[in-house]
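FAQ

Q: What does a record look like?
A: Structure on top, sequence underneath. For example:
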């Protein structure tokens, strides 16, 4: 774990292999796919919490060169979806996974009682 703590201090993130079980990863994939589907099909609750690839490409064309921001496909394709737990309560269950909190505490060299979940989102790249 010390290696992960060092990487986190240096890079601002750490990859912890095996943190989630195959079942957890499958659940997370299904949850993400569900929100992407809802965004693509115009679910207003999801759209309010989202930024489309079209929007971000119009605002920052240098970030996504070659992406035609004015197309309908780009308007319907989510780039960022926020407020995950409010959009689907199952994200709260995933985020509350004890293994995650235990490993985050170890990586940050802090007790679990010092940790606070502040923000989480899905970011997708074109």
């Amino acid at each position: 774990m010390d290696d992960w703590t060092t990487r986190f201090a240096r890079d601002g993130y750490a990859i912890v292999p095996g943190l989630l079980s195959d079942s957890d990863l499958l659940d997370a994939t299904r949850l993400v796919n569900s929100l992407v589907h809802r965004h693509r099909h115009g679910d207003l609750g999801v759209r309010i919490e989202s930024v489309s690839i079209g929007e971000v490409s119009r605002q920052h064309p240098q970030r996504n060169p070659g992406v035609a921001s004015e197309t309908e496909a780009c308007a319907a394709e989510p780039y960022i979806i926020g407020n995950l737990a409010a959009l689907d309560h199952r994200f709260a269950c995933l985020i509350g996974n004890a293994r995650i909190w235990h490993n985050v505490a170890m990586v940050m060299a802090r007790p679990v009682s010092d940790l606070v979940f502040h923000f989480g989102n899905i970011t997708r790249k074109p």
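Q: Is there anything notable about this one?
A: Residues 2-123 form one domain.
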